User: What shape does this take?
Amino acid sequence: MTGPVWSQEFSVASVEELQGAARSIGQRVAAGDLLILTGELGAGKTTFTQGLGRGLGVREGIISPTFVLVRNHPSLADGPGLVHVDAYRLESDAEIDDLDLETTLDSSVTVVEWGSGRVEHLADSWLHITLVRPAVPPAGGSPAEQAVLSDDDDEPRHVRIEAYGPRWVDQRLGALV
Assistant: This one.
């Protein structure tokens, strides 16, 4: 794999701003696009996906697919649906392939949490989105307690988007916040 064709970074001050940026991306992606989300527990991957879903115009109610692995969110308009995947517990390429994501890839926007290094083979182009939030433990809390905070916490986050493949050579996202 070669490096990204472009990248951009920005910071958001709140969950609302994170979802607003994701909503803006949702208005710019198309069926067949693959987004790979990276970030520690509580970084905001599902929160980001909720905003993306609003931008796509899919059915509300996006929650983490941790236990079911894949959730499909149909479009309420004429746009693509959203396929939301959690690859955290998957241990092999075969388990990724068993999800049969290829069947919906062309007709939907596919978002894979914890997919870095595991799902890039699904498409010749993708966006790798990394979410980072400050690692400041709650008052009196340990770093271990910090790691299990929910991603609903209204804290600043830093977002890095790296674009790979021919789809993104001439397509930029522009200002998102």
